[in-house]
Design brief:
Layout (H helix, E strand, L loop, with lengths): L1 H23 L11 E3 L6 E3 L7 E2 L3 H7 L3 E2 L5 H5 L6 H14 L16 H7 L3 E2 L17
Parallel strand pairs: 4-5
Antiparallel strand pairs: 1-2, 1-3
Length: 146
């Protein structure tokens, strides 16, 4: 019994430093704000509306990294290829369809692209928005390209 108790104590003492680091040195939460592009390329950055510098829309890559939805009407094939449920081939097909038939009015219009069915659309929907679904003053609106 004493041996088991000593082993348990040793295990707890081994884990204690990691637990203490998590509690004591846990970095505070960052600023809570909607991501917004700031600054002029090539020295642009993603910040908040209160940050200094000229405003700009987020690129598709920045929106993906920030967790913001990607605008179907402005995204490149490279931007769309990173969306769950869309492959590089389907992303290229979305861009080709947009150039041929015009902008998407809603994310549901994505179903008009061959190869995108209800399951694939449901998987991609949280990561996408169409121009008509976002407000024009939305700081999460995207600029073209990445």
């Amino acid at each position: 019994m004493a041996r088991r108790l000593a082993l348990l104590l040793l295990a707890l003492l081994t884990l204690a430093p990691a637990a203490a680091r998590r509690v004591l040195f846990h970095p505070g939460r960052g600023r809570e704000c909607a991501p917004e592009g700031r600054g002029a390329p090539p020295r642009g950055w993603v910040g908040c509306a209160t940050d200094p510098g000229p405003r700009r829309g987020l690129s598709g890559r920045e929106a993906r990294l920030a967790g913001a939805p990607i605008d179907l009407d402005r995204a490149t094939a490279e931007d769309l290829a990173g969306v769950p449920g869309l492959s590089a081939r389907l992303a290229a097909a979305v861009v080709a369809d947009r150039e041929e038939r015009g902008p998407f009015r809603s994310v549901d219009d994505l179903a008009r692209v061959r190869g995108i069915g209800p399951a694939r659309l449901a998987r991609a929907r949280p990561w996408l928005r169409a121009g008509a679904e976002g407000s024009p003053g939305n700081p999460r609106a995207l600029s073209g390209g990445s």
